[in-house]
Design goal:
The complex is a heterodimer of chains A (about 190) and B (about 325).
Chain A lengths: L2 H7 L12 E8 L2 E8 L4 H8 L18 E4 L2 E4 L12 E3 L13 H8 L9 H16 L21 H7 L10 H12 L2
Parallel strand pairs in A: 1-5
Antiparallel strand pairs in A: 1-2, 3-4, 3-5
Helix pairs in contact in A: 3-6
Chain B lengths: L4 E4 L3 H10 L3 E4 L5 H6 L7 E4 L8 E3 L5 E4 L4 H6 L1 H6 L1 H8 L4 H6 L2 H6 L50 H7 L3 E6 L2 E6 H4 L18 E7 L8 E6 L10 E10 L2 E10 L6 E2 L1 H7 L6 H12 L11 H17 L5
Parallel strand pairs in B: 1-3, 2-3
Antiparallel strand pairs in B: 4-5, 5-8, 6-7, 6-8, 9-10, 10-11, 11-12
The chains are: A alpha+beta (about 190), B alpha+beta (about 325).
């Protein structure tokens, strides 16, 4: 709470903290390299939105409770509001802006969300989509979930039914309640 | 948030040295709880010593058949690890019952153990809390305490420990390995967290500057039937109201081994030693399970608004014991 102001003030010359509270940090974001002189207090979400104009990731709760800020770091979905950017030096970050291929080609999950009308206000959507990208990769890598049956073999891809999708996306809240369509959209990509 | 220094270290020796060299230092793992508490003004470190990239990220089998889990192993990777899923299902289940996919990808094994209570009085600097500010008083005792402790609480503090993982570790007889400049030591997971007493600011027995290097899962509890059950307000992504981890071996209709720990009932995972003692050697029947769990929970001292936790904990424990004994999937 209040951290938006605290963080926002910190990268301006006049209010800049001493050098030992800032560190030059290199991040590769959507395949582009950025070296930034960062106040240690700044979280990845604020760097994306305020410094790099990547406003797809949203600030919902700012406390890791809503998932609207979800991005992929080194291919894994994470809450960007809880990651200190300085600690990510050398990491690869993918935001919703970086999911689409060259040209106008949308990521299959973006396409599915459009086709299924899987949103109302759209505020949570970039987080939902990045989270779904991560969840599909986790299932393919054999990661179980809370609802995966105990007899499911270890180390093999986990099939995703609607119960699995709901559980795996439980870290993304949608206050419009678009959940049924979100589950359908993800299902479309799992079972083309 | 208060400005702070940042140091990334490459070895455990560098980590403990950096901590000792910087007054007001804190170790940074995945940061999912620490960074949040810094935003809330509850934690105000002068320097963060980043231990998240230390070479403590492996799960390895030791010669004696035990499994060593590095402190920097992420919760999601630990839950998915085939050796953990196959040998210690209760640990995988407990991890997957906690937090969200995003948080489990960031949170580390060591950090999970060191996460702080989610008591709303602790997290709000405008409210009194003996854990945050010793001597301030406890707002929860006469306030909103539906989620709080029913066992082992004190006049000073009624907070619960929020980890699911730690409950499974306690039931499995795991050990926590620690290191500081004085050397290495190992403590039972069930004794790593402490009861509040008159020092509620201390969650664990860890010394200032001591670093968790690994958690060791013993060979003795590998392959035993085990399960975790968590009761919460919604189906996913919520802290426990009550939870239980059970490790049970039945031979010829009698209990040969029982490891039982409750979560969300106390300031630490509550190892149910009385229930275990009552069970071992006796019949593995629902009546015996109900009797033993009842003996354990007779020590409960519920507060005004959390009495529901006692029958809830009893029911989930008896159910998990019964299912494990009948070799059904719990």
């Amino acid at each position: 709470m209040g951290s938006e102001n605290d963080d926002g003030a910190a990268h301006d010359g006049a209010s800049a903290p001493p050098a030992e509270q800032r560190t030059a940090t290199t991040l590769r974001i959507n395949a582009e390299r950025h070296t930034l002189d960062l106040d240690h207090r700044r979280v990845l979400l604020d760097v994306l939105r305020e410094d790099l104009d990547l406003t797809g990731a949203k600030k919902g709760c700012d406390h890791g409770q809503c998932g609207a800020c979800t991005v992929l770091v080194d291919g894994r979905r994470v809450n960007s509001c809880l990651l200190l950017a300085v600690a990510l030096d050398g990491c690869e970050v993918t935001t919703v802006e970086g999911l689409a291929g060259e040209g106008e080609e949308l990521h299959p999950l973006q396409r599915a969300f459009l086709d299924r009308d899987a949103f109302q206000c759209g505020y949570c959507t970039p987080g939902q989509i990045c989270s779904a990208v991560g969840a599909l990769a986790e299932a393919a890598a054999g990661h179980p979930s809370h609802v995966t049956g105990p007899a499911t073999p270890s180390g093999r891809p986990v099939p995703l039914d609607p119960d699995e999708i709901r559980e795996r996306l439980s870290g993304n809240l949608c206050r419009c309640g678009a959940y049924p369509r979100i589950v359908e959209a993800v299902e479309d990509v799992v079972v083309p | 948030m208060k400005p702070f220094g940042y140091v990334r270290v490459a070895s455990v020796e560098e980590a403990t040295e950096a901590f000792a060299a910087h007054p007001g230092a804190r170790y940074l793992g995945g940061g999912t709880n620490l960074v949040d508490l810094m935003k809330l003004g509850v934690e105000r470190p002068a320097v963060l010593v980043d231990v998240s990239r230390l070479p403590l990220d492996a799960v390895e089998e030791l010669d004696d058949g035990s499994l060593r889990v590095g402190a920097a192993v992420r919760n999601s990777d630990l839950a998915a690890h085939p050796l953990v899923r196959d040998r210690y299902p209760v640990l995988s289940q407990a991890l997957l019952a906690g937090a969200s996919g995003q948080l489990r990808n960031a949170a580390t094994t060591g950090g999970n153990l060191l996460q702080r209570t989610r008591c709303p009085y602790f997290q709000d600097t405008a409210k009194p809390c003996n854990k945050r500010e010793p001597g301030q008083g406890c707002g929860a005792r006469e306030g909103v305490h539906r989620d709080h402790a029913v066992l082992g609480h004190s006049e000073q503090c009624i907070a619960t420990h929020p980890s699911d993982m730690a409950v499974a570790l306690a039931a499995l007889d795991a050990r926590v390995e620690l290191l500081d400049e004085r050397g290495a030591r190992s403590v039972p997971a069930a004794e790593f967290h402490r009861l509040p007493g008159d020092r509620p600011e201390r969650d664990t027995v860890i010394r200032p500057g001591e670093l968790i290097t690994s958690v060791v899962l013993p060979a003795a509890t590998a392959w035993l039937p085990s399960a975790y059950r968590k009761a919460r307000d919604r189906a996913s992504y919520a802290f426990a109201l009550a939870s239980v981890a059970v490790v049970l071996r039945v031979a010829d209709g009698r209990v040969a081994h029982a490891g039982i720990a409750f979560g969300a009932l106390a300031h630490r995972p509550w190892r149910a030693a009385r229930a275990e003692e009552a069970l071992v050697g006796g019949p593995a029947t629902p009546d015996a399970f109900a009797h033993a769990v009842g003996l354990e929970l007779a020590a409960a001292r519920p507060l005004r608004d959390n009495g529901y936790k006692v029958p809830l904990a009893r029911n989930i424990a008896v159910d998990v014991l019964t299912r494990l004994a009948s070799a059904e999937a719990p």
